[in-house]
Target: Polymerase/histidinol phosphatase N-terminal domain-containing protein
Amino acid sequence: MLKIDFHVHTYYSDGKESPKEMLNYALKVGLNGIAITDHDTSKAHITFKNKFVIPGQEVTTEFGHVVILCNFPPSPPRKISELIDYAKENSCIVFPSHPFDIFRKGIGHKVFNYNFHAIEIFNSKAPKSANKKAEEVAKQLGLPGLANSDSHIEYALGSAYNVVNLSEFDIDEILDNIRKNRIEAVGIGLTVKAKFEIAKWYIQRKLRIEKDTSRIMREV
Model:
């Protein structure tokens, strides 16, 4: 049995740690692997290759965030219809992340308009009401439900994962198990320490962005 988190960020987008640090911490807390899904970039997969990392992206589409998982570093289009075609042509998986979290670019009821492979029904950072709605919609559509941490810091890892009935970490087999709904979503929730570290990282990023913006304005 494998425990895998399909939604993880690194410092190649808005995460704090490196891909290696995120994987090492994931293994430390009992996961067997992760999908690195930085926002609109596959840089992590070009600089860091490991058999326990599934290549992916969290794509900013015209309606909100959608995750794509492949067995290679993807270069996906950002229009949902084209993204789904790209996934089909390349044997990838696509699912809307935190679809009913209106504060974090969820695609909302657009989930009914497209043929996704699964739906993220538990996101560790999403409100309970948003996760509950996503779970209801997944059941309504007969789609697999996934539970993910959406980690931007290492301490959030382990707060959600998916159990896959495989003995070996084979990316193609894992993706196929998602397609066939042979997966169990496990949502645990963030620890107090994780919540504190997330808040601290948010403040650090905000101050850094403001500092960079101020510097750019002075240079203009």
Notes: Residues 211-220 have pLDDT under 50 and may be disordered. The chain is about 35% helix and 20% strand.
